[in-house]
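Appendix B. One record, verbatim.
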Amino acid sequence: MVFAFIIAGLLVARWAAQLVLEILNRRNVMAHAGPVPDAFKEVVDQATYDKSVAYSLAKGNLSKIEDAWDSVVLLAILFSGVLPWAFSKFWVHLGPSAWAMASYLFTIGLALSITGLPLEWYGQFRLEQRFGFNTSTQQTWWLDRLKGFLLALILGYPLLILVLKLVEWTGRWWWFWVWATILVFQLMMAVLAPALIMPLFNKFTPLPEGSLRERLLKLAERTRFRARSIQIMDGSKRSRHSNAFFTGFGRLRKIVLFDTLVQQLTEPELESVLAHEIGHFRKKHIPKMLAASALGSLLGFYIISFLAGQQWFYEAFGFITSKSSGWMPELPDKSIAPALLLFALLSGVVLFWLSPLMHWWSRRYEYQADAFAAAVMNEAASLRSALRKLNEKNLSNLTPHPLYSGFYYSHPTLLERERALAGPRAVGQTFLSAGQRGF
């Protein structure tokens, strides 16, 4: 019972912190509402700035509802007894096989994803629609979710079965072999997803012959960045937000530009955006972050292996671990499924408090990629211009509260990036500051 109270307290503490952060951010945005601040007069006009303030406030209001709803759902599913009840039903009717326990995990995951659909729908077809970003249709939106479900069924469900089988086959070291298997699976998906999965959601077409293609190919050549192709993705099918990225490994690597990005930026600006992305590659940011993620997941599976052997861990959430007259069967010694599920549900609480550290690391890499792009372009003006346009077109929050951005933003703000591009002295001043999502 003590552990249950601790977990409940941590969940409530996270929700309270999220609420405080939203309130702080709202106050900071409102404090800078009105005339365009001097620092942004060359970035946005008054009408666009007013719209960005309204957009930031609207997203903040929706986030408060989402945070409260997610917290209520998680508290309910952890402490209402529904998890042990569902486990008993699967155990009694399907037995203890790996496929039955994988069905239990898959069903709970599906049920949790459904609870968030109404707010996701509202965010897309009400909030994004109101500010002119939504271009998705009802059919496309629902079809995306159906495709996601089928992919989870085709790929995720067999992976769950394999994980549970590995627990049976490998004994006390199961956590290491499960980690290694999932790591291999993730690397395979990183290679196969661009060719097999991403085209299920978006259309990719080669960048047409012309000056832009030649400019980008020359950039890739002088930065020793090998790519199989440069492609345009129909991001406008769902949203007017824009981005750029590269995906795949080795000779299968692709440079991908959103069609909205190509429409919004000039050729030098697009070149600077790609130079930034190549900067991540040349600075080896991606393998470093993958390595950190792999070590984190290894630690996670080891913790699961420890918790799976603790009676108090199961009983805190209503699972029976010793022979007694109860309404559900005794939890089998070799059943790891509840431990996997409970850890997955609780891990977000820990990751929330670690997010400032992870985002500080991410922002540091963004500064380095910006510096690389400026060096490759022999000037920072193109990148600065691209950043300004992207912030304007995406109605980015130009004045987030530092604590809020520390918890939620993986990229520096526009003002911080411009200061960093201005000189090394400014870089040091901005490393501990906040950022915003997207390029």
